[in-house]
Amino acid sequence: MRTRPAGIGNVNADWMGSLPSKLSAMPLKYLAVPGSHDSFTFWVDVHAPVGPDQKAYVKYLATMFSVLAKKVMVKWSMTQNLTFREQLDAGIRYFDLRVSSKPSEPGSDIYFIHGLFGHKVRDGLLEINSFLGRHKKEVVFLDFNHYYAMDAEHHVYLIHMLQQVFGSKLCSDCAVENITLNFLWEKKYQ
Fold first, then answer.
1. Which residue, 53, 185, 44, 40, is CA-closest to 126?
2. Three-class DSSP category at 122
3. What is this structure's pTM?
4. At a CB cut-off of 8 Å and minimum separation 6, what does 171 contact?
5. Where's the Phosphatidylinositol-specific phospholipase C X domain (predicted)?
6. Residues near 90 by Cβ (< 8 Å), separated by ≥ 6?
7. Which residue of 68, 113, 156, 177 has the fewest C-beta atoms within 10 A of its own C-beta?
8. Which residues of 39-78 are buried (b: 16+ CB within 10 A; e: fewer)?
């Protein structure tokens, strides 16, 4: 099934900033925030090797039946058909992120992954940051919940990347139970 944002243009792009003051003063844990599963899997690289998130038998089958196996894998690896920007414009604010290095590739680059490798994480973060720059009252939640083929160096690289891309927009407050949109807006955290 192909989904597209409802309405004309980006009518949901500023929904947080449009909330009544009663809701913006409420702790975030009480707000329903739209999210997406395997958020940035609207594109996967059929030419890259099968990801380290897959079982050995899947990797074996992909090696034995490369073209056919990857055609099948694409169908279940791509769980989104909206781009980064389209998801943000549609109102998505919670992102389920699964990331991996490419074991055969030198360096610290990290990619979105779901069976097959997707875009570089940095590209997705830059797209989110660009959106936030245009929508000052919108806040996103990045849930990096699965890591594959990543050692300590990759994790340090990811943390530095987040700091570099988002800078002062990152919320450094650890008492998340009571954080409100008003607090985030006041501190210019997004």
1. 40
2. helix
3. 0.88
4. 179, 184, 187, 189
5. 27-187
6. 5, 6, 10, 12, 34, 82
7. 177
8. bbbbbbbeebbbbbbbeeeeeebbeeeeeebbeebbeebb
pLDDT tens across 2-31, in order?
Answer: 555 555 467 799 999 999 999 999 999 999
Give, for 67, the enclosing helix (H) or strand (E). helix 66-77
Cβ-based neighbours of 175, under 8 Å, separated by 6 or more: none
Tokens, residue 90 = 């549609």
User: Which listed residue (47, 114, 119, 155) is catalytic?
Assistant: 114
Determine how many CB atoms are found less than 10 A away from the CB of residue 135.
Answer: 19
Residue length of the chain: 190
| 155 catalytically annotated | no
For residues 47 and 63, what is the distance between their CA atoms, to the nearest angstrom? 12
Task: Give the tokens for residue 54.
Answer: 């897959």
